[in-house]
Amino acid sequence: MIHLATQGILTGMLMGAIYALIALGLSIVFGIMNVTNFAHGDFVMLSMYLSYFVGSAFAWDAVITPLITAPLLFIFGIITYYLLIDRTLRQMYVVQLAVTVGLQILMRSLALVIFQAQPRALQYSFIQGNIQIGGFEILTSRLFSAVVSLVFIGGIAYFLNKTWAGKAMRAASDDLDAASLMGVNYHRTYGLTFAIGASLTAVAGGLLMSFQQTDPQGGIRFGLLSWCVLALAGLGSVTGLIVAGVIVGIVESLSLTFFGSRSELLGVYAIFILVLWLRPRGLFGRR
Amino acid sequence: MHRHLLTRKNLLILGGLVVAMLLPLALSSNQYVMVLMTTVLIYAVLASAWNIIGGMAGQLDLAAAAYLGLGAFTTGTLLIRWNITPWVGMIAGGVIATAIALLIGFPLFGFKIKELWYALSSSAMVVVMQSIFMMWTAVGGATERYLPANGSPWYSLRFNSYTPYYYIMFVILVIVLWVNFRIRYSKLGYSLLALGEDEDAVEVLGVNSQSAKLKALLIYAFICGVVGGLYACIYSYIHPSFFDTNMSMEIAILGIVGGMGFIYGPALAAILMVSFREFLRANLGSEMAGLYLSVYAIILILIALFQPRGIAPLIERGIKKIRSYSEERRHGRAADLNPQ
Amino acid sequence: MQRKALQLFGIAVILAMVLGACAPAAPQAAKKQLPSEIVVGVVQPLTGDFAVFGKEGRIGAELAIQDINAAGGIKSMGGLKLKAAVEDAGNTPDTATLATQDMISKNHPVAILGEYISRFVMAASEVTDRNKVIMIADALVPQITQMGRQYLFRPGPTASDHGALAYHFVMDTAKANGVKINSIATLNEDSANGEANTLGATQAALQNKTTIVMSQEYPYNITDATQIVQKLKAANPDVVIHTPYFNDAIVFGKAFKEVGWYPMFIAGAGACGYVDPDSIKGLGDAAEGISMTYSYNPAKNTPQNKKFVAEYKAKYGVIPTEGAGMNYYDAMVLYEALEYSGTHYPDDPLNPDNLRASFLALDLKSGPAEEVYPSNEIKFTPTGDNQFPGVIVMQVQKGQPVVVYPPDQAEAKPIWPNPHYKGS
């Protein structure tokens, strides 16, 4: 029993770190620009498809595909920002919801038209396998992905808090009008933020592709989940994402271990709702 | 309010009602149109109900399908287990949906959850409900349950044509629009609208924002629950997939696209957008899978970007223009008759 | 205010009734002469969660209709040709209903093939029964034929047949290899189809007193299966009987590989998961040795089936998938019924009741439908199920799906145990 629980916690923690990375892009976009992107999960889906095509075209391992897919997603992010998001910034937030839900339907249906309905998966990655430590099993692909997630989250946190460009971004987030009055071109800053957010999903997509498959509906799995991690972490807290992701991962894996697979979602979203009720600013929110 | 019954506005409404009631007679030979109109009406009712919580109270609720599903499961279970007519089941479904809404809404508004966070928690609600009904095998479970069709069609609400469903949905729509109208011009309506503008200011004026929002949520949940009962009868089964996050989002989007807070806006958007989507599906659906949804999504995005206040204001402006134009002409003619 | 609204509504009702009474009665259409071509509706989920199956089903139906026409159409009706009309059933009961009704109103088909998902079949057959249109369903869930639908037929086997066959295949093969199976575990995605498969396997196991050490359901869009595999590893069954959809087969295949634990045998049931060409491509070596029950036998050695397989291969580069095969023989069953109706009801062969009687009268032991069908006979029960359902087992051998069971239909011997099995 205790053994099972410990194993569950270990597996959940590693998966949680990946969830944190998936939510990272959303977090900086929402935290800095206050943009609610309901199509975030579908950005992940697109990244996974691109990883699949890059991986099968060059016979690359999924883990290194972000070298190509991240720049592609960056461009995609810029295009999306200037075509859609930029126009919604000064509207009511419901308009943003309508536009990004529209984008979500568009991405899913275009994926079906272009990539077809079959699920796509890459064969093994060099990071597949497992290590045994004291009777517990640790999957190397998850361990590797978790480490990469931590590195990226740490890097982004450093960038936002310590570098000039990051501070400018955050300044723009605090007051859009003041920033533009002071001559900060918020369009460019926001475009850059959105594009960085998008290219971060490419990193997550590459890691996910090393042990998963994708299909046009693949984004659904990650959309609400990312919001859940984000809500737990609280606004503006990049490092909080790690703790939030790990909580989600552990809850998921423990409810799976003890109550069966359907309860996974139930456990995660029940906690999500409770946290929204009890600590609307999240566990580590700065606002 | 006008004193006479037959003002121009009322005549227009009267005309619309008569046409809507006569449509099935003209079109009943084409059952497809009847199915389509019934489907449109389902969405129109749900979107109009959403207007109470979304448009008036300004709470972006994404849980319509949660209440719809509760209504469907209540009605279905009562009919399957105890052969209780869906007429009773619908009301019971509405009551249960309301009770759950109360359970959720009380803490939700108590803790002052708003905007995005309200939207997310309501969206998560749908997933939670789906999981619960998947796991609760006594009434739900993964295998769908079929509604029996015993007794007379009016007892089990299973007809040989869609025309009766159309009329039932139509009556519900009229009632829901009327409820919308009543709320809009009541004390509750004014507090809700004010809440949407600035919640803190309203609180200072002594309006209990929590109870106002809660009332709006309960009315909305009740309507969704009733519709859910009918939904189960129309499609003849109940299944946890009724708790559908996409459908909930679509209903909110219809409310937004229609024009937040305009009484007829969401119904209008449902009529336009649902028929448009269905038109695309019927004509493009077999060509290239997914293409029609892309077209639909692009139109949706364009409306949201370029008509962010919705379709209803557009129409309002159109009517005003026509009116001022005809007025101008009348004045113009009068001027012609009296030179100097 | 309230009274006024009521008055307004009352006036509207009265006006509508008066005007309605004046409306002329719809003319009764009564044409008996044959149309210039017979339309067959193909309504499949081409978008949404089940798009991959709908697409395959559509291909199978269209190929069958093409072959029927090339062979001279419906001979008993003077060589009348068939025409396929396709619609997307979408992802919800609303769209499935709309699509079915639109198909009927627009194209007046004699029969509708498809819908794939049991709950879409239920919503759609509500429409087809009202309109008296034959519906030939390709959903495997047993319950769909138990709801008293008059015009619904299902030539294919049921999901319980699949589950039971998966069990018997494993037991027979183990016996042939001199191994005794002591315990099994069942695993299924939690849909009506998954549950029915597992139920079939469980019942067979109970009858034969095999211990079931673990039963696990999971949502088909699961993202990570390694934990379930770890649980399986702890339970350590000899055999896992798994009913996957499509995505989840890949997720599980990778999870077995990653955790590095395999039971003696992984037997799939009821859907095309592991042995589908796309899954094999995504799984590579991890798919090797996994078996899957199939509602269609691509290796059946008959002229009609060979022709179908060759056409499919020429067009798509792989052997027909289950969905394609099922819809191919479904269309062929329709063809046989039309021929029968043309012979026995020459006055009005396309009348739905005559056509229904023809379906019930069919007893096919030869002919194009039987040549593609995995058993040797097709004969419908009054509820619309096939009395002689046929299921076969395919196994991935050297990266290719190969038919291995039942022995009289097999192309090769099953590989036992799973090549990755390390002993217990």
Provide structural commentary.
The complex is a heterotrimer of chains A (287), B (340) and C (424). Chain A has a single domain (2-127, 135-278), classed as ABC transporter involved in vitamin B12 uptake, BtuC, CATH 1.10.3470. Helix content of chain A is 74%, strand content 4%. Chain A has eleven helices and four strands. In chain A, the strands form two sheets. In chain A, strands 1-4 form a two-stranded antiparallel ribbon. In chain A, strands 2-3 form a two-stranded antiparallel sheet. The model of chain A has no long low-confidence stretch (mean pLDDT 85). By secondary structure, chain B is mostly helical. Chain B has helices at 8-27, 31-56, 64-82, 86-110, 115-135, 153-156, 163-184, 187-197, 199-204, 209-235, 245-258, 265-284, 291-306, 311-337; strands at 145-146, 237-238. Chain B has a single domain (31-334), classed as Orthogonal Bundle (ABC transporter involved in vitamin B12 uptake, BtuC). Chain B has a two-stranded antiparallel sheet with strand order 1-2. Chain B contains 14 helices and two strands. Chain C is an alpha/beta fold. Chain C has two domains: 37-157 and 301-379, 3-Layer(aba) Sandwich (Rossmann fold), CATH 3.40.50.2300; 160-294 and 392-409, Response regulator (Rossmann fold). Chain C is built from 13 helices and 14 strands. A seven-stranded mixed β-sheet of chain C has the order 7-6-8-9-10-13-14, sandwiched between helices. In chain C, α7 (226-235) packs across α8, α8 packs parallel to α9 and α11 (322-344) crosses α12. Chain C is globular. Mean pLDDT of chain C is 88; it is low at 26-31. Chains in contact: A-B, A-C, B-C.
Topology:
The complex is a heterotrimer of chains A (287), B (340) and C (424).
Chain A: H1 2-33, H2 40-58, H3 66-88, H4 93-115, E1 120-121, E2 130-133, E3 136-139, H5 140-162, H6 164-174, H7 176-181, H8 186-209, E4 213-214, H9 219-233, H10 240-259, H11 263-278
Helix pairs in contact in A: 1-5, 1-8, 1-9, 1-10, 2-3, 2-4, 2-8, 2-9, 3-8, 5-6, 5-8, 9-10, 9-11, 10-11
Chain B: H1 8-27, H2 31-56, H3 64-82, H4 86-110, H5 115-135, E1 145-146, H6 153-156, H7 163-184, H8 187-197, H9 199-204, H10 209-235, E2 237-238, H11 245-258, H12 265-284, H13 291-306, H14 311-337
Antiparallel strand pairs in B: 1-2
Chain C: H1 2-22, E1 37-44, H2 51-70, E2 81-88, H3 93-107, E3 111-114, H4 118-131, E4 134-137, E5 152-153, H5 159-176, E6 183-189, H6 192-207, E7 211-218, H7 226-235, E8 239-243, H8 247-259, E9 265-268, H9 277-283, E10 291-294, H10 303-316, H11 322-344, H12 352-361, E11 363-364, H13 368-372, E12 378-379, E13 392-397, E14 400-405
Parallel strand pairs in C: 1-2, 1-3, 3-4, 4-5, 6-7, 6-8, 8-9, 9-10
Antiparallel strand pairs in C: 10-13, 11-12, 13-14
Helix pairs in contact in C: 2-11, 3-4, 5-6, 7-8, 8-9, 11-12
